[in-house]
Design goal:
InterPro entries: KsgA/Erm (IPR001737), rRNA_Ade_diMease-like_C (IPR023165), rRNA_Ade_methylase_Trfase_N (IPR020598), rRNA_adenine_dimethylase (IPR011530), SAM-dependent_MTases_sf (IPR029063). It is found in: Cytoplasm. Keywords: Cytoplasm, Methyltransferase, RNA-binding, rRNA processing, S-adenosyl-L-methionine, Transferase. It is an enzyme of class 2 (transferase). The protein has 12 helices and 9 strands. By secondary structure, the protein is α/β, with parallel strands linked by helices. A 7-stranded mixed beta sheet has the order 4-3-2-5-6-9-7, with helices on both faces. A two-stranded antiparallel ribbon has the order 1-8. Strand 3, helix 3 and strand 4 form a beta-alpha-beta unit. Helix 7 crosses helix 12. It starts with 16 loop residues before the first strand and ends in a 6-residue tail after the last helix. The structure holds S-adenosylmethionine (SAM). The site of S-adenosylmethionine has 23 residues, from strand 1 and strand 3.
């Protein structure tokens, strides 16, 4: 497909440009733009997803850190629709301010070196986001969507699944990108849960409990949670203190955190 311009890829910015039309079409089908949707894209790069989305939808806002891409992106976007470009590190973008009370749909083929920070940044602003479709390292998507008992079930699985419905959609081979990454990729959908469904009393305490539980995943909960929650409270949450974090459901972590004492201020 023609992107209208081609800049050399910058490794430091995790640039692997998607070129397989079939993969782009599958992403569009998964995203399924509807009239009235508002889209924000992280890292438009050379426009692989941006331009087809503009063709379908007419307008979109994109956040790109690479200054060298801004001018060619703006110029090449003209025939496709109205592109609003924000030149920034996505980590410095306040999604709540960007939404201005109108939650948007977030999409992106993310720079893999920043996957986790971007995911947690999005979680911090979940109320401003309707849903997310991201291309990520397959290994990260596997961890995000993992179920209890799986070898890759961990902090990322619990933190994301507590706040969002997570669906792993499809795998993408390295050859779909230029230059090809060393690993397989996958597309994932995250839909933030309404706050009443999340049921977490104190997000900071929840994060502390989950971090401590998986910090030493081979230890029993009684030992791993020593600093944040004693055995009586684990029992009060209806959980055997001899179990390990990897065996707990997300709802168990929520109950446990809601019973844990508040951390010092
Ligand atoms: N969306 C394009 C595609 O699918 O071909 C590019 C994807 S490439 C994997 C990641 C993009 O994110 C690049 O355009 C890169 O410049 C941009 N990027 C990297 N770090 C960023 C950051 N901190 N904030 C915003 N964009 C960033």
């Amino acid at each position: 497909m023609t992107l209208g311009f081609r800049e050399p890829a910058k490794k430091s910015l995790g640039q692997h440009f998607l070129h397989e039309r079939g993969v782009i079409d599958k992403m569009l089908l998964a995203i399924s733009p509807k009239p009235g949707d508002r889209f924000v894209e992280i890292g438009p790069g050379q426009g692989a997803l941006t331009f087809p989305l503009l063709d379908r939808h007419g307008a979109l806002t994109a956040i790109e850190f690479d200054r060298d891409l801004l001018e060619p992106l703006t110029a090449a976007s003209k025939p496709h629709g109205a592109l609003t470009l924000i030149h920034s590190d996505v980590m410095n973008v306040d999604f709540t301010a960007l939404a201005a009370g109108e939650p948007f749909r977030l999409v992106g083929n993310l720079p893999y070196n920043l996957s986790s920070p971007i995911l947690f940044h999005a979680l911090d602003h979940a109320a401003s986001i309707r849903d997310m479709h991201f291309m990520l390292q397959k290994e990260v998507v596997d961890r995000m969507a993992a179920a209890p008992g799986s070898k890759v079930y961990g902090r990322l699985s619990v933190m994301l699944q507590a706040y969002c419905m997570v669906t792993s959609l499809f795998k993408v081979p390295p050859g779909a990108f230029r230059p090809p990454p060393k690993v397989d990729s996958a597309v994932v959908r995250l839909v933030p849960r309404p706050p009443e469904q999340v049921g977490i009393d104190d997000p900071r305490r929840f994060a502390d409990v989950v971090r401590a539980a998986f910090g030493q995943r081979r230890k029993t909960l009684r030992n791993a949670l020593g600093g944040v929650c004693d055995a009586d409270r684990i029992l009060a949450a209806g959980i055997d203190p001899q179990t390990r974090a990897e065996q707990l459901e997300v709802a168990d972590f929520v109950r446990l955190a809601n019973l844990a004492p508040a951390p010092p201020v």
